[in-house]
Write a structure and sequence with these properties.
The complex is a heterodimer of chains A (about 300) and B (about 250).
Chain A: E1 2-6, H1 17-27, E2 31-38, H2 42-49, E3 54-61, H3 70-80, E4 86-90, H4 93-105, E5 110-114, E6 116-119, E7 122-127, E8 132-138, E9 143-147, E10 163-167, E11 176-183, E12 196-200, H5 207-210, H6 213-220, E13 223-226, H7 228-232, E14 253-257, H8 263-269, E15 274-279, E16 292-295, H9 298-308
Parallel strand pairs in A: 1-2, 1-4, 2-3, 3-10, 4-9, 5-9, 12-13, 12-14, 14-15, 15-16
Antiparallel strand pairs in A: 6-7, 7-8
Chain B: E1 2-6, E2 9-11, E3 18-19, E4 26-27, E5 33-35, H1 37-51, E6 57-64, H2 68-78, E7 82-87, H3 94-108, E8 112-116, H4 127-135, E9 139-149, E10 152-159, E11 162-169, E12 172-176, H5 188-195, E13 199-202, H6 204-207, E14 215-221, E15 230-232, H7 235-245
Parallel strand pairs in B: 1-6, 1-8, 6-7, 7-13, 8-12, 9-12
Antiparallel strand pairs in B: 2-5, 3-4, 9-10, 10-11
């Protein structure tokens, strides 16, 4: 039994979600190999070889693997799939994009967003925005999984000494081409892996008002997040969205500001270690999950909190 | 050019589901059902493409129980020209749905299939990608902008950390994200008109597809509850708690 974990990276840097996926792979038992498919991503492959518990890194290098196009990346995984009992992706935008494509080609059921492994064929996964947890058993020979990163503590990024083996890249499918990328530049930590998250909701009132969260986030070294209501209203960019259909986060500290606490939002943050809620409505459902609630006007509380820190 | 839009009947967005006491699933008896919100965005997008003249026909398809025809009528009230119900009482998992849709695609020969990125019941986020794989078509998931041109479609996608744009050769699969559009309100005259639109019936058998589930659900339970904490009086008390009790700052 051997597991193949698909590394999340940008050709320069190995992303943290890979460490959570390797942790899930290690729980399955058996060896864990990591696939780095990219263009000029030698540094990523070298970093993957140092991950604790990884015994082999497979490195596929080609120009058409540079941008994680689903058609090419899935084909690359499929070219290696016959050697593996489990194929594991982190449940990131990229993992969710590619894993079902791999599974369907193998004619196996993909299992999404697992949060626990009961045995090599039995997994727990949230359904209905996390309002229920299903335990599912797969009968297919190969299990293709996406791993909710907050469900598995990351393994150490250092300590391993796996071999790096070059594998033949698959041919370009020619079906899709990469045009461009607009990545929001930010000095803040990445939302999905941040230690502290400061999130704003509809109560912020406008995109301009959202800026009052900046100094607080700076002081806390926090990533910024938002509820779907705030994203829908145009107060915050979509990639800040925390919730059922956005990012799932579990930071040490989650500060929910002007967020009422719809179930879809709670689904994305209720596994945080400590939750603080600031809201002027003392009946807001967010107080039902918050460790510390402060009823008050956020436009006074937020600057006061920032200066008190 | 024809667009196919699969739609799913799910428990309404606003309903908080309850787990059954025998742990066999969630209780959906007597619960309000609606079209999956992402699918509504998909129907809206296809309809707008038709209104712009880029598309000639929008066909909605739903796989599931007989009542899924209500979901198809909603799709037709938004703007789909006709509907196809693939009726079955079997529990449908994403791979099975993808296989049923492949059979419908083979019959209908659309150039574009627009699906919701995820259904809000099983939260699987798989069907579009699986369908693309089965058809060997390119895919653009989590779309926030779709620009159709001759023989290709350019799609802006919501990805971690920002946006990316890719171009796909047609025929292709697109799955919708939240910001692609805001679905219109369905008007009464359009609901009445939708009742007269064509609705065809298929079954997994008539399409020659084995739709039996591959995953066995052993149990469904409530998540561990998080208990409410305390209210603090002011900012100073909050900072004190975070520093000295929770020790997170």
């Amino acid at each position: 039994m051997t597991t193949l974990v698909i590394a999340e990276h940008d050709n320069v840097e190995l992303k943290g979600a890979t460490l959570n996926a390797v942790a899930a792979g290690a729980k399955l038992g058996g060896d864990v190999h990591v696939l780095v498919a990219g263009k000029g991503a030698q540094a990523v492959a070298d970093a993957a070889a140092k991950i604790s518990g990884v015994t082999k890194v497979l490195h596929a290098d080609a120009p058409h693997l540079a941008d994680g196009l689903a058609e090419n990346l899935a084909a690359q995984v499929l070219a290696l799939a016959s050697n593996y009992s489990h194929i594991v992706f982190p449940a990131t935008a990229s993992g969710k994009n590619v894993a079902p494509r791999v599974a369907a080609k193998l004619d196996v059921a993909q299992i999404s967003d697992i949060i626990a492994i009961e045995s090599p064929d039995t997994f727990q996964r949230p359904i209905y925005a996390g309002n229920a947890i299903a335990t599912v058993q797969a009968s297919d020979a190969v299990k293709v999984l996406t791993v909710r990163t907050t469900g598995f503590d990351p393994v150490a990024a250092e300590g391993g000494s796996a071999s790096v083996e070059a594998v033949d890249p698959v041919a370009d499918s020619g079906l899709s081409t990469f045009v461009g990328r607009e990545v929001a530049k930010s000095d803040r930590p990445e939302l999905a892996g941040a230690r502290v998250v400061v999130s704003g909701g509809r109560g912020m009132g406008s995109a301009d008002n959202f800026k009052i969260l900046d100094p607080l986030a700076d002081k806390l070294g926090a990533a910024l997040g938002a509820s779907r209501a705030a994203v829908d209203a145009g107060y915050a960019p979509n990639d800040w969205q925390v919730g059922q259909t956005g990012k799932i986060v579990a930071p040490q500290l989650y500060v929910a500001i002007g967020i009422s606490g719809a179930i879809q939002h709670l689904a994305g943050m209720k596994d945080s270690k400590v939750i603080v809620a600031i809201n002027k409505d003392e009946e807001a459902p967010i107080f039902g999950v918050a460790d510390y609630g402060l009823v008050g006007d956020l436009f006074q509380v937020v600057p006061a909190l920032e200066s008190a820190l | 050019m024809k667009v196919l839009v699969p739609v799913k009947r799910v428990v309404d967005y606003n309903v908080k589901v309850r787990v059954k006491s025998d742990q066999s699933g969630v209780d959906i008896a007597n619960v309000k059902m609606s079209m999956n919100p992402f699918d509504e965005i998909a129907v809206e997008e296809a309809t707008r493409l038709k209104e712009k003249g880029a598309v000639t026909e929008v066909v909605a398809v739903s796989c599931g129980v007989a009542q899924s025809q209500e979901t198809l009528r909603t799709a037709m009230a938004i703007g789909a020209d006709r509907g196809i119900l693939v009726q079955t009482d079997v529990e449908l998992q994403p791979l099975a749905v993808a296989k049923l849709l492949r059979a419908v695609v083979d019959k209908e020969q659309p150039q574009l299939v627009i699906l919701g990125k995820q259904a809000i019941d099983d939260d699987a986020n798989q069907t579009g990608q699986a369908l693309a794989a089965l058809l060997d078509w390119p895919q653009a998931t989590f779309a926030s902008k779709v620009e159709l041109s001759e023989g290709s479609v350019k799609v802006t996608r919501e990805v971690d950390g920002g946006l990316e744009t890719i171009e796909l050769k047609l025929p292709a699969i697109v799955t919708t994200d939240l910001r692609l559009n805001e679905p219109r309100y369905v008007t009464l005259p359009n609901i009445m008109k939708a009742k007269k639109k064509q609705l065809d019936n298929e079954t997994p058998e008539s399409l020659g597809v084995d739709a039996s589930p591959r995953l066995k659900t052993l149990k469904v339970v409530e998540p561990a509850a998080r208990k409410a904490g305390i209210k603090v009086a002011d900012v100073a008390a909050l900072v004190d708690k975070l520093k000295n009790e929770a020790k997170v700052i």
